[in-house]
C-alpha cells in the first residue's frame, strides 16, 4: 500500500463521514466539503477510468495538468494507481492514452487524439493536431465556452511535458 493509499485508508477508518477535504474558491464563493468516503469514491472512479478506459497499468507514467480545485486531489490520488500517457522512442510517439478531466461532467477518453499522436513526431505541431482531433465537434454552453480552448492548450502542454527527456 502506498503512502497516499494508507493515509486515505486511515481516514476512512477514523471518520468515514466527517469532513476530510474542504475546497474554497475565493473568486466564486464555491465551498465544497468531501468526507473520506466521498473522496475515496472519487479516487476509485478516477483509478478505474485510467485502468479500464485509458488502458493504464501499474508503473505507467502519468502526466496531469490540473487547476487548483478539489477534483485535483481526487485525480492525483487516482492517478497514483498509474496511467499511461505517452511513450516515445527516438522522438516518435510509440503509444498514447489521452483522457480529459474537469472539462465535462465526468472524465472522458479521446481515442481520436490518441490516433493522431501514434507514429508521429513528438512536436508541438503534432500535439496541436491531436488537440483538434480530440475537440472536433465540441460545443460550449455559453458559460463554459472557455473550456474548449483550455482543453486544447492543456493537452498540448501536458503532452509536451510528458515527452520531455529529463
What do these coordinates show?
- The protein has helices at 3-14, 36-53, 70-79, 111-117, 124-135, 146-162, and strands spanning 19-24, 31-35, 86-89, 92-96, 99-100, 108-109.
- The protein is of the alpha+beta class and 166 residues long.
- It has one domain: CO dehydrogenase flavoprotein, C-terminal domain (Enolase-like, domain 1).
- The strands form 3 sheets. A two-stranded antiparallel ribbon has the order 1-2.
- Strand 5 and strand 6 (108-109) form a beta hairpin.
Chart the SSEs and their pairings.
Elements: H1 3-14, E1 19-24, E2 31-35, H2 36-53, H3 70-79, E3 86-89, E4 92-96, E5 99-100, E6 108-109, H4 111-117, H5 124-135, H6 146-162
Antiparallel strand pairs: 1-2, 3-4, 5-6
Helix pairs in contact: 1-2, 2-3, 4-5, 5-6
Query: Which stretches of 5+ consecutive residues score pLDDT under 50?
Result: 81-86
**In what order do the strands lie side by side in the largest sheet?**
1-2
Radius of gyration: 17 Å
The CATH architecture would be 2-Layer Sandwich
SS element count, helices: 6
Helix content: 40-55%
Helical/strand content category: alpha+beta
Overall 3D geometry?
Answer: globular
Separation, N- and C-terminal Cα atoms:
27 Å
Amino acid at each position: 500500500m502506498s503512502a497516499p493509499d494508507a493515509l486515505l485508508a486511515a481516514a476512512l477508518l477514523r471518520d468515514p463521514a466527517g469532513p476530510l477535504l474542504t475546497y474554497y474558491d475565493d473568486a466564486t464563493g464555491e465551498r465544497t466539503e468531501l468526507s473520506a468516503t466521498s473522496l475515496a469514491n472519487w479516487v476509485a472512479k478516477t483509478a478505474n477510468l485510467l485502468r479500464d478506459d485509458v488502458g493504464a497499468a501499474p508503473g505507467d507514467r502519468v502526466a496531469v495538468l490540473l487547476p487548483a480545485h478539489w477534483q485535483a486531489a481526487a485525480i492525483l490520488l487516482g492517478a497514483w494507481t498509474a496511467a499511461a500517457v505517452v511513450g516515445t522512442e527516438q522522438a516518435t510517439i510509440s503509444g498514447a492514452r489521452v483522457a480529459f478531466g474537469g472539462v465535462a461532467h465526468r472524465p472522458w477518453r479521446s481515442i481520436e487524439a490518441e490516433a493522431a499522436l501514434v507514429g508521429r513526431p513528438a512536436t508541438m505541431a503534432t500535439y496541436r493536431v491531436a488537440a483538434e482531433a480530440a475537440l472536433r465537434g465540441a460545443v460550449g454552453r455559453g458559460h463554459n465556452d472557455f473550456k474548449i480552448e483550455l482543453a486544447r492548450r492543456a493537452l498540448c502542454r501536458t503532452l509536451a511535458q510528458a515527452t520531455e527527456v529529463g
